Please model this.
Amino acid sequence: MTNRKTLKMTVNDTVRNVEVATNETLLETLRRVGAVEVKCGCEKGDCGACAVLLDGMAVDSCLTLTHTVGTRAITTIKGLGTAEAPHPLQTAFAELGAAQCGYCTPGMIIATQSMLTHDTATPDENDIRHGLSGNLCRCTGYTKIYDAVLEGAKAMRETEAAK
Model:
């Protein structure tokens, strides 16, 4: 018999009470509560499709047990920007054709946001390769993704400088 507990979770700045099993992954919980933008890929931490930000750091939600999250803030791709006001990374990925089928794109953008925030705001190709090493794309040759990361990073720096 699996133990269950009720948690207060913050997802994209919305607080909700959620009952979870102690063996339930964050991926399962998020999709169950309607966050279907978090993609279910390999379910073993190899592809990065399920990446979310946990207090600003990218994690694979398929490897994270929900009950360990506590009160930390969870941000999905929907928490970064909207269709009306997209995040600079979302804009760069769209404009530069870095999203083909789009399945890996949320995880790629989440990993990029984490890299740009915590590692380097001015990445080179090696930084990008390292920052996205946990994310797989089966549609592209990654060139457009690297271009989008560079363009998105530049736009983020310009936005920050304008503040």
Notes: The mean pLDDT is 95. Residues 4-79 form a domain with the Ubiquitin-like (UB roll) fold (CATH 3.10.20.30).
